[in-house]
Amino acid sequence: MSREYETVIGLEVHVELATKTKIFCGCSTAFGGAPNAHTCPVCAGMPGSLPVLNKQVVEYAMAVGLAANCSITRHCKFDRKNYFYPDNPQNYQISQLYLPICRDGSVEIETSAGKKAVRIHEIHMEEDAGKLIHDERGDCSLVDYNRSGVPLIEIVSEPDMRSAEEVIAYLEKLRMMIQYLGASDCKLNEGSMRADVNLSVREVGVEAFGTRTEMKNLNSFKAIARAIENEKNRQIDLLEEGKKVIQETRRWDDLKEYSYAMRSKEDAQDYRYFPEPDLVPLVISEEWVEEIKSRQPEFQPEKMERYKREYGLPEYDAQIITGSKHLADLFEAAAALCKKPKKVSNWLMGETIRLLKEQDMEPEDIRFAPANLAKLIELTEAGSINGTVAKEVFEKIFEEDIDPAVYVEKQGLKTVNDAGELRNAILQVMKDNPKSVEDYRNGKEKAIGFLVGQTMKAMKGKANPGMVNKILKELL
């Protein structure tokens, strides 16, 4: 009889903060740039260089902590974590072990099983390491220190999650919360949000945790879900064969859908932590915490309720639009310009979501201006263009952020509202399609649809469909 197992998962989520400069120096944090262009003696780990703490990093960390219902550590400090790796130029990382800035929080997630609170053990501040680039041709590794010293927060959860679905719900909740705060863009593909998955399995009903492994190199939600499923099955197979799970760090290869051991799991003592001698302890006053609290934005739940109340949006529309800070900002700006919130919602829920799916994009990747969507709605409402043309124009707005009024004028796409011109076109269509005319006159109502279609074709889609219908019925 096979035994039943339960998966136990905790996450360490690293988030690069949206500061313009690094945590301990004035170098740029911009993504990209020529290798080693955003470096100085401090982030390149030169002897004798001294760190200076970036105040904005502390404020972002506090804002995320408050949003995650954490208590703020009023007296916190930095610690030195020693390890030797080529992408770590100082041979140590400045982090927080003993007194992290935020502790004991929780976020609520919702899955098919219902609502659940995931506890957060702590959030601490630290600096990122550089990046190793493995050159296959030269059979060597190159190092880029642009990322070295980029500020990070690490959000450490308790082992409260039991499935890949819960993990993704938790990550989506964190990402949305942090994006609403403006603390990070949380782009997994650029590495500004990274999750390490700590996973173990145990027999259902057993209190004690099993031996856990940590999985790294997970840069999309899909990869995380696949890695969890794979590691769960790997551990269950080992236990079923009477073998032991080894505590280790594993690297996930998403192309091969396979993980392999990188190193045995270190403990805190392996890093020889000690208080960072070059930074004074941080004292956070009550006033400072209150100031950060007063600056917290309207988060998704409140925004969603307001959209239903103020704009009369259905629950589903409000939920989808507020699910992305960028989409919500776009909606509000366009609605303010054209004063037609339901129309704006329709364009976002329909064509925008369709194009995002087709092009495998995130709402954060949308580049068109709210003004151009508002103008398109005004053109359609005024009858200057019809629905078919509007969709064609919107695709151009989505791709190239064009001004729809200028584009419609240049391409000659304005709707023909001239009754005389339409009448002539319809008479020609009737002359070319005597069978359909006869069918309609013999009571086949559907025949008019064909004649309208032929007229639209003759007018290259630019006719006013309402007027075409009206004139056709008169002539028939």
Can you describe this structure?
This is Asp-tRNA(Asn)/Glu-tRNA(Gln) amidotransferase subunit GatB. The protein is an alpha+beta fold. It has 3 domains: 5-289, no CATH class; 300-411, no CATH class; 419-475, Arc Repressor Mutant, subunit A (Orthogonal Bundle). 40% of the residues lie in helices and 20% in strands. The protein contains 15 helices and 16 strands. The protein has helices at 55-67, 164-181, 221-240, 286-294, 300-311, 315-322, 325-338, 341-358, 370-381, 387-400, 404-411, 419-432, 434-441, 447-458, 465-475, and strands at 5-16, 71-72, 75-76, 79-82, 92-95, 102-111, 114-127, 131-135, 140-144, 151-157, 193-203, 213-216, 248-253, 258-264, 274-275, 282-283. It has a 9-stranded mixed β-sheet. A 3-stranded antiparallel β-sheet has the order 5-4-15, with no helix packed on it. Strand 6 and strand 7 form a beta hairpin. Helix 5 (300-311) packs across helix 6 (315-322), helix 7 (325-338) packs antiparallel against helix 8 (341-358) and helix 13 runs antiparallel to helix 14 (447-458). The protein is elongated, with a radius of gyration of 29 Å. The termini are far apart.
